[in-house]
Amino acid sequence: METLAAFFTVWADPKLFALVAVGTFAGIYIGAIPGLSVTMAVSILISFTFSWDVNPAIALMIGIFMGGVYGGSRTAILLNIPGAPSAIATALDGYPMAQRGEAGEAIGITTVMSFIGGFAGIIVLAVAAPVVSDFALSFQPRDYMLLAVLGLLLVGSLASGSLVKGIFAGALGLMLGTVGMDPLTFTERFTFEIPLLQSGISFIAVMIGLFGVSEALTQLHQIDKAAVRQSIDRIVPSWSTVRKHLPLSMQTSAIGVFIGALPGTGGDIAALLAYDHAKRVTRNPERAFGDGAIEGLVAPETANNAAVGGAFIPMMTLGIPGDAVTAIMIGALFIHGLNPGPMLMVEKPDMFWFIVGALVLANFCMLLFGLTGIRLFVKIVEMPRAVMVPLILLLSVVGAYAVNNSITDVYWMLGFGVFGYFLKLYGYPLGPIILGVILSRLLDDNWRRAIISERESLPAFFHGLVTSPLSLVLFLSVIFIFVSQTPLWKRWRRGRTGPARPPAEPGEPEDATLS
Amino acid sequence: MTSNTTRRPGELAFTLFLAVVSLFLLWTAFGISGFEALSSPGAVPMATTFAMLATALIVAVKTARRPAAADEKLGRDVLPPLVFVFALFLLAYALLLKPLGFLPTSALFLVGSVKILSGRGWGFAVGVSALSLLVIYVLFRIVFTVLMPAGIVPEGEILQALRGLFGAGR
Questions:
Q1: Contact predicate A356/A62, CB 8 Å
Q2: Across the interface, which of B49, B52, B94 has its CB nearest the CB of A410?
Q3: Residue A102's pLDDT band (boundaries 50, 70, 90)?
Q4: Are the C-beta atoms of A371 and A236 separated by less than 8 Å?
Q5: With left for phi above 0 and alpha for psi between -120 and 50, is residue A211 left, alpha or beta?
Q6: Chain A residues with CB inside 8 Å of B66's CB?
Q7: Do the Cβ atoms of B8 and A49 come within 8 Å?
Q8: What are the Cα distances from residue A403, in Å, to A326, A408, A472, B1, B146?
Q9: Which bin fits A48, alpha (ψ -120 to 50), beta or left (φ > 0)?
Q10: Tell me, what's the pLDDT at A158?
Q11: Rounded CA gap, A502 and B1, in Å?
Q12: Total Cβ atoms within 10 A of residue A52
């Protein structure tokens, strides 16, 4: 009964209801406008909502997250520019459809499929999370440490295609997270005797700098790029079209949830894998893939929205973020005094069901807003970069200042913005940095707990590692991911399979909007 | 996006800079508690900075081996004048924010940037900036109640006067 009440909180309270709706609406536009990412929006939003109560703040952010993942598909279809990394695969077939004048149909089917995928993800979240969190209560500190390393490695290697650059970014994030007073021994770390550094570097300042300012500076490279106009016709897809693609959408939803639930992988990778899956299982598509096949829209769009629910599973049950956006959501929960992890499910199950309820509502809002207001949408997306870039920069400064009313945070934010600009330019992924900052405390604490419980003995630590099935699986996964990205392994694979086709490039999430 | 076959202008210098910074940070991390214990406060910082140094060196060697990109220039593809100008704009914005206040600084910043970026007249720049600033102000200062430095604008008094006006009208 209490579960039900928590689930319907967001539906019964007009204010929360409106916040989810507004968030979803805004998310669709933010996701759609190339250069504005959900990560950026949620990072800036945290700074503005941190004085709110937790429920309204989370309601707004969930709306933005859900809407944003879907919104990226709009510009992918209309302009061939994926508004978000998770829509890269959508552009492959969506844009050819738009070129034939079928943009309306493409948007319609994308919306309905995102809705179906979103639901699949939420159902799995509702069913699986309580079970996973029960299981997670038996996790040892070393398992948490291994999970954190696993997440960082996955994001690092998959995001940029260069493992070394990914590891560098992840390690940099972990290092930044340790700046300040050590919470266990009160030793100063990387403070250089500067009092301002004792409380650490504001993670919001780092985040806004990396995702707001550096993105805006990158946009300056192509300030003159004009938007292409489109005409829109029929939007709502026929029932027969939906029914025909239902089996495929169920399969790709499953892929989406699974990939989303893995720590470190999110909607972008889920969408690409689902696209690949659709290509293999669709025998006779009406049109070839890459030339406007509807299956090429159905697969990535169900998968990326299913991944949203999936990504909440490790976030809520283990406190381990699935990707940059969930890393930021964890940050938001921390700011509001909640501690995501197995104990959250035990101590505050209401919060979990509140989030599930908000996700369901956001999914409905997405369907509604997705099928309406396309004409207005096209107008807004055509907003010139000459106006958008200064606005992003202004919001970044306001956001960084607002958290602590501190001008120092603004300087940090600007510093990281410029640094992030160069990192991006030279092919370093930014996602692992923020993931590293978030995971730093978890990794540091758990490593120390694990090694202290083994009385500082490395052999005993490794003995524990190989004798516990869970730790062993995690450890082997870490080793496998690491080895599978090394040139030696790649050469060996190539030697076995002959000249393989180039792997599906997940692309650089942050650069995806610019390609 | 970086190409995997050529080296972009400034890439090697940047990578070496990362390596030097990593080395310095590793040295600092060593200074936290040395090799005292595996659970010491310096253990994880040392491990992470060591990983940074090792990966930065690998990237540096790889970068050095690649031929320089023939069709790219530092001043055009890496740090175009516009990016440089905006970095300076942002710095000026941050420096002026506190003494001058949020509204005047933002107005100056917006008008200047929109004018430069759009290449259109002052009327357009001022109009667009005023409208955007109004929306941002109403949304963040009034709806989200974010406190921004008032500076030279007697913001509190104006808001109070406005409230008084609406209060009196009721």
A1: no
A2: B94
A3: confident
A4: yes
A5: alpha
A6: none
A7: no
A8: 20, 11, 41, 33, 9
A9: alpha
A10: 62
A11: 18
A12: 16
* Residue B1 CB partners (closer than 8 Å, separation 6+): A427, A508, A511, A514, A515
Chain A hits for B59, CB-CB cut-off 8 Å, are: 162, 164-165, 168
CB-CB under 8 Å, B117 with A386: yes
Q: Tell me, what's the ipTM?
A: 0.89
Q: How far, CA to CA in Å, does B7 sit from each of A303, B60, B79? A: 36, 11, 15
The CA distance from B139 to B162, in Å, is 17
- Does residue B141 register a pLDDT over 90? no
Q: Indicate yes or no: CB of B8 within 8 angstroms of CB of A425.
A: yes
Q: Could you tell me how many residues make up chain B?
A: 170
Top-confidence residue, B162 or A229: B162
pTM of model > 0.90: no
How many CB atoms within 10 Å of residue A477? 17
Structure-model confidence comparison of residues A98 and A379, the more confident one:
A98
**What is the rounded CA–CA span in Å between residue B152 and residue A130?**
54
Taking phi over 0 as left and psi of -120 to 50 as alpha, with beta for the rest, A292 belongs to left
Domain boundaries in chain A?
2-199+233-383+435-512
CA pair distance A137, A53, nearest whole angstrom? 28
* Rounded Cα distance, B70 and A46, in Å: 43
Q: How far apart are CA A364 and CA A513, in angstroms?
A: 27
- CB contact set of A200 (below 8 Å; sequence gap of 6+): A177, A179, A180, A181
Torsion of CA A467, A471, A474, A479, to 10 degrees: -50
Residue type, B137: Y
CA distance B101 to chain A (A): 12
User: Quick count: other Cβ atoms within 10 Å of Cβ B112?
Assistant: 18
Dihedral sign for Cα atoms in the order A343, A344, A346, A352: negative
Q: Which of A397, A437, A457 has the most B C-beta neighbours within 10 Å, making it the best mutation to test the interface with B?
A: A397
pLDDT, mean over chain A: 82
* Contact assignment for A386 to B109 by CB distance below 8 Å: no
User: How would DSSP label each residue in A378-411?
Assistant: HHHHT--HHHHHHHHHHHHHHHHHHHHT-HHHHH
Any idea what DSSP says for residue B69?
Answer: P
Question: CA nearest A89: which of A274, A226, A330?
Answer: A274
From B44, B119, B132, residue closest to A447, measured CB to CB: B44
